Backbone:
């Protein structure tokens, strides 16, 4: 899941980003509204965590623009106030959810996951192919009933390949969906992750290289 945090309190933004990365999400951070809006224009995020009170462009304004663009991106708005009037105002601007500061981190994670599920309605709760099963919520992978321990990136790659349902997925798409913007597109990072993922999944091989196109998972 690809998440953007737009929050001008650097410490809070960075702490939330670290926490979400530990949950296996690919996270980008913007510290003001304009930078946030620019990132949201370039990348198709699943969920944007949007502070309401921002320099540059306010959270309200950014929310309004995102809603006008009719993207699949879901927005959860953070606000200092928990008043009902604020909540209604936030939702009427096109936010999908609303969380008052201070919030419990676990609450934020739960809301983001719920919104992420709505952003991709076709994704089944459990992804399977042959004898491989991946549970996105519990972050567990099994092959033939045996647990397979994966790193966050390996898990993300497998999740995308399973979601593609046998279709070819390019390295560029994997970079876009599993890595954050700090990933260097010219490195061998996808290839290396693919190699360790294949090794951990064992035989018979499931992930096939389609020369010049990418990778596909064949059960
Ligand atoms: Ca703020």
Residues:
């Amino acid at each position: 899941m690809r998440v953007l945090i737009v929050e001008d309190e650097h410490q809070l933004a960075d702490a939330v980003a670290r926490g979400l990365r530990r949950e296996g999400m690919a996270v980008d951070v913007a510290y003001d509204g304009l930078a946030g809006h620019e990132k949201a224009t370039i990348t198709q995020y699943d969920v944007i965590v949007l502070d309401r009170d921002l320099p540059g462009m306010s959270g309200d304004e950014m929310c309004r623009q995102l809603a006008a663009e009719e993207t699949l991106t879901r927005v959860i708005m953070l606000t200092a106030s928990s008043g009902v009037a604020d909540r209604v105002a936030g939702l009427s601007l096109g936010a999908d959810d609303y969380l008052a500061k201070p919030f419990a981190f676990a609450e934020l994670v739960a809301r983001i996951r719920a919104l992420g599920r709505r952003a991709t309605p076709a994704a089944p709760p459990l992804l399977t192919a042959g004898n491989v099963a991946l549970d996105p919520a519990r972050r567990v992978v099994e092959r033939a009933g045996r647990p397979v321990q994966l790193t966050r990136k390996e898990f993300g790659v497998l999740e995308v390949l399973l979601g593609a349902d046998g279709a070819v997925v390019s390295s560029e798409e994997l970079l876009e969906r599993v890595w954050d913007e700090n990933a260097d597109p010219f490195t061998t990072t996808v290839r290396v992750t693919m190699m360790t993922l294949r090794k951990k999944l064992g035989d018979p091989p499931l992930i096939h290289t389609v020369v010049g196109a990418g990778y596909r998972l064949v059960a």
